[in-house]
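Because discrete structure vocabularies remain unfamiliar, we first show an illustrative case, written as a sequence plus integers encoding its fold.
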Amino acid sequence: MKEDKWIIEITPKSNLLDFNFKEVWKYRDLLMLFVKRDVITLYKQTILGPLWYLIQPLLTSVILTLIFNNVAGIVPEKGINPFLFNLAGVTTWNYFKECLTATSDTFKKNEQIFGKVYFPRIIMPLSIVISNLLKFGIQFGIFIAFYLYYAFIKGDQVAPDTTYVFFYPLIILFMGMLGLGLGMIISSMVTKYRDLSFLVAFGVQLLMYISAVVFSIGLAKEKLPDYAWLVEYNPLAYLIETSRLMLIGSGEVTQFGLIYTGSFCIVTLLIGILIFNKTEKSFIDTI
């Protein structure tokens, strides 16, 4: 008699770092469904709809240019357009910010779904990281449009580092890994400490100012030598600085910075998966 084989067998994770790629692949249709949901419902029933994807980075860059460059007198390197400098940093930063803030509420926002049906829980934060890639693509298109305007119409000296510009997707990958890892850590902690969800938005705003979004790492060392270590040891600062070097040729990147940043992103993601796996076993009892 032929034995019946189960299509899917639900068993406890053998270890905390267990990441079943095969199972996630089986649920790829559900993953894409969540991605579609995230994209469509975000600005549903709004007047401008998807135009908010474009308005947000533009308004942020204009405000930063007016306040930090025109009023405070913080200027980028000679020959670099301040608005383009800010837009390059904001575009890259926004991808990390959206990944972090959205994944940090994974358990709390989806407790009803998690409590009714089984699927690999990590699909939910993964769908957020993937859906944010679409938003990033739209915003990056705006940056390209302004880059072409300043470079060819106004004649500003802005030139990407042609040696490394093709590695820019790697910067976005590290941003996604860091946002996913930190988001899963915070989401796991929110199941017990709800106050953290209120601190995330505030904390992200403060984090932006020590992540070299509105100034270069070199300027931080020059103007604020006593506090420059906050920027120097911030892996986000190296990611932003590297992205600007690749896109507009502004900034300096060291080998130590790249190795340190890459290692930090990978370790953070592994820790995030470990804590996420541990929390998903019992979060439904505490949330």
